[in-house]
Amino acid sequence: MVGLVIVTHSAALAHGVVETCRMMAKDVCIATAGGLEDGSLGTSYERIVRAINSVYCEDGVAILMDAGSAILTVETIADEMEDRVLRLVDCPLVEGSIVAAVAAVCGADLDEVVRCAEETRRVKKIAN
Q1: Which is catalytic among the residues 9, 13, 25, 113?
Q2: Is 9 a catalytic residue?
Q3: How many CB atoms lie within 10 A of CB 15?
Q4: pTM
C-alpha cells in the first residue's frame, strides 16, 4: 500500500487531517510531521524524515504539505532521498489527503494516488 505523509506547520492540524483520513480509510498507512519538536509552529526536517521512514514501502510515499517552508523542506529531503520512491502532491491539504487515503486503501498505485489527490484542486465547493 502507498504510504502517506502529512507535513504541516502545526502538529494539531496534521493530527486532525490524519484523524479525518482514518475516519474515511481506517487502514491507511499514514504519518504526520507537524510543527517543531517543542510544540511550536514550524517545519522540522527530522520529523519529516522520521515520518517518511515510518511509512516507507516499495509502493512509495505520497507527501502532502501545507505551504512555504513545509514545501521547501520536503523538496530538499526528496532530493536527498533520491533512492526512495517519493512523490510531492500539489493539492489542497485536507481534501487531497482524504482522497489520497481512500485511493491508497483501495489499492491504487502511487501515480493514481497522486492523480486523485491533485484532482481536488479543481473541485468547486459552492456553485455560483
Answers
A1: 9
A2: yes
A3: 15
A4: 0.95
